[in-house]
Design goal:
This protein is an all-alpha fold. 89% of the residues lie in helices and 0% in strands.
């Protein structure tokens, strides 16, 4: 039963959300916001951050459903939040003129719906959640942290890199910040397929590894990497032509439009190799090398973003910062591809050695 793990998720995410809520003002100042922008950001975070607990529970319930083999209901958990956002955002932001407050409220409502849909699937359809005992919670803590700690560290890398880039770009005015934030939102939507691919390939790799079908690991990775590359190339071309129209949809001011075009062009080019990094991280996490995934994500954040963004900003302001971020990220994507090949070679050699030992017995 998943009750003990859900209790742990609730406790950890609750502590994290509380800490971030209390520290929201220093974090806003750290990324360079001031004046009205800082006040709006703090208000948004004050409303949105507590719902982090709901997001964690929703994702955990989605994982429970996926582990039970119910991929459709697992997918419905995240889709439900997207549907709520698509409906409520225009109503609250524009219809009721609530602005950022409306966006924050929508986030909370969407995450609440996630938990509801996930609970109906996990408990209503499968009876997978029971009331845990203290012994069950303590027993789940060790395996939970063995997997969660590297995953948490891995997932903290990208926000840390984005925060640093935002702090640098904020020196060049609100227009530059707007262009960077717009490009981040566009990339999150445009490359959702890559996130989905990296989330699904892990189970396939783990199943084949557990079944001893080592030859299928390389084939799976080849197909996924080819698909990711083709998708990202197509999306690069599509975003290049769509960028001016997207900027119009965002009602971006003139000072943001030119930078937005540059960020989208170079950022999309980098995503061709970032797609490799996401697929590679999924393979590392599911083939017994989770710390390698953590190392690559933090390597990209520390070595692939910070120096490249800093030097790029010195070279050509906000434009150079965006190009530098893309270049550093692409470099680590290519390195992850090489590391994937090394990991697969090591697994094949280990399997071959085991087979020889069994024959000798």
């Amino acid at each position: 039963m998943a009750g003990a793990s859900l209790v742990i998720v609730f406790a950890v995410s609750g502590a994290a959300s509380l800490g971030l809520w209390l520290m929201r003002a220093p974090f806003v100042a750290l990324v360079g916001a001031h004046g009205e922008a800082a006040a709006l950001a703090e208000t948004f975070l004050a409303i949105a951050l507590p719902s982090g607990v709901l997001l964690s529970l929703g994702m955990a319930l989605s994982g429970v459903l996926r582990a039970a083999g119910d991929a459709r209901r697992a997918m419905n958990v995240t889709l439900s939040a997207a549907v709520v956002t698509a409906i409520l955002d225009p109503i609250l932001i524009f219809g009721l003129d609530m602005g950022l407050t409306g966006a924050a409220v929508t986030i909370g409502v969407g995450r609440l719906v996630m938990v509801f849909v996930g609970w109906r699937g996990a408990q209503g359809a499968h009876r997978l959640v029971g009331r845990p005992t203290r012994q069950e919670i303590v027993a789940d803590l060790r395996p939970f942290w063995a997997i969660a700690a590297p995953a948490i560290m891995t997932n903290l890398a990208s926000p840390a890199a984005s925060a640093f880039a935002l702090a640098i770009v904020s020196r060049f005015g609100d227009g530059a910040v707007g262009a960077l934030v717009m490009s981040d939102r566009v990339f999150a939507l445009a490359y959702a397929a890559i996130f989905a691919l990296s989330g699904s390939v892990g189970a396939i790799l783990a199943q084949n590894l557990g079944a001893g079908r080592i030859e299928r690991l390389r084939e799976t990775m080849r197909v996924c990497l080819t698909l990711a590359t083709f998708y990202c190339i197509v999306m690069w071309a599509a975003l290049h032509f769509a960028a001016p129209h997207v900027a119009t949809l965002f009602d971006a001011p003139a000072e943001s439009r030119a930078l937005f075009d540059i960020f989208v062009f170079w950022g999309s080019a980098a995503w061709i190799m970032l797609g490799w990094l996401f697929v590679a991280n999924a393979s590392f996490n599911n083939l017994g090398f989770p710390l390698l995934s953590t190392a690559f994500n933090w390597g990209r954040a520390v070595l692939g973003v910070i120096p490249f963004v800093y030097v790029g900003a010195m070279w050509d302001g906000a434009r150079g910062a965006g190009i530098g971020m893309a270049a550093g990220s692409a470099l680590f994507g290519a390195a992850a591809l090489v590391a994937t090949r090394i990991v697969l070679n090591r697994i094949e050699r280990r399997a071959a050695t085991t087979n020889v030992a069994r024959r000798l017995e």
